[in-house]
Specification:
- The protein is built from two helices and 15 strands.
- By secondary structure, the protein is mainly β.
- The strands form three sheets. A five-stranded mixed beta sheet has the order 2-9-8-5-6. Strands 10-12-13-14-15 form a five-stranded mixed β-barrel.
- A hairpin with a 6-residue loop joins strand 12 (202-212) and strand 13 (219-223).
- The radius of gyration is 19 Å and the shape is globular.
- The relative contact order is 0.24.
């Protein structure tokens, strides 16, 4: 096997969601609806999870009894293909109170699930509209955006991020202080290690460092400012800064971090694989096993991190 210094490291573009530009502009221009959601009832969390319908109940992206190499295909035209994309960062902005404003550039309602103050929250964004969320606790948060069809089934799923610390102080009161600057690094190699498997490194254009995660341990970062990953900072053979991924989170607000495909469908290839063609995260053997999803649905993620960004829906 060639050393890492000898490898040609690719810079893949994460797969993001898309929408017609005119609809994006309509949603961005809408008057944001203020949202201060209470913790979501278990029934609502379960309903959203059932709408996603993961391939099996282990949450590891495999059909029962089959390996990672088996591609998951939609059962009917228009169904979700079970590839978790990135939410477009440009679809998350901030108002004068530093509150995240998320727009929905689609002609169907969008559901957004995330964890805040240790509890799952779910907000609904009407078609071609936007919401301003009260998230007073400072930090970086990931969310799952789910677009449903008329029958309540998911037609697309994406992971995004926003930064808290903003709130409306009320009439006549001073604005909240601006959040501290985000710590980030550009053009960083990433290597994934799941169990005994190591995958060939790839480059990301930016990594946002969210700091040590008291809830789940290790360091949390956002790949390309969106995809959550937990691991450690290391160095390449040439001494360059590198991040080593040990787990990710496919459905923030609905599951816990685990060894799973990276949202954005980043291509991965086993380090021992000498072939020249890469494979997407749904096409390679990523893990030997994963925790049961039933124990993940109610898990409350205590989120510990920084401020801004997000990813795109297709």
């Amino acid at each position: 096997m060639r050393s890492q210094a000898q490898q040609v490291i690719s810079t893949p573009q994460p797969e993001k969601v898309q929408a017609p530009q005119q609809d994006v502009e309509l949603a961005k221009a809408s008057l944001p609806i203020e949202q201060r959601p209470d913790p979501a009832p278990k029934r609502d969390v379960d309903d959203l999870w059932n709408a996603i319908k993961p391939p099996n109940r282990t949450g590891d992206g495999r059909d029962p009894g089959q390996g990672w190499g088996t591609q998951v295909r939609p059962s009917a035209e228009g169904d979700w293909d079970h590839r978790v994309r990135q939410w477009d960062r440009d679809w998350v902005q901030y108002d004068e109170y530093y509150r995240p404003v998320i727009c929905n550039p689609y002609r169907d309602a969008l559901r957004v699930a995330y964890i805040y103050q240790g509890a799952p929250r779910i907000v609904v964004i009407p078609p071609l509209a936007s919401i301003a969320m009260e998230v007073a606790d400072y930090g970086a948060y990931n969310f799952t955006a789910v677009l449903l069809n008329a029958f309540g089934a998911a037609v697309n799923v994406a992971v995004g991020s926003f930064f808290g610390g903003g709130y409306d102080p009320g009439p006549g009161l001073p604005l909240p202080p601006p959040p501290p600057p985000v710590t980030y690094y550009d053009n960083i190699p990433v290597v994934v290690r799941y169990g005994g498997d190591t995958y060939q490194p790839f480059m990301v254009s930016r990594i946002v460092d969210a700091g040590d995660d008291a809830r789940y341990g290790e360091r949390k970062v956002l790949l390309d400012g969106v995809t959550p990953a937990w691991g450690v900072w290391t160095q390449t053979d040439t001494g360059q800064r590198q991040f080593e991924v040990h787990k990710t989170q496919q459905f923030p607000g609905l599951d816990d971090p685990q060894q799973a495909p990276l949202p954005g469908d980043y291509p991965l290839r086993l380090a021992s694989d000498s072939s020249s063609s890469g494979f997407s995260t749904r096409d390679v053997s990523l893990i030997a096993g994963a925790a049961a999803v039933g124990t993940l649905i109610l898990a409350a993620a205590g989120v510990h991190i920084f401020r801004r960004l997000s990813g795109r829906l297709h």
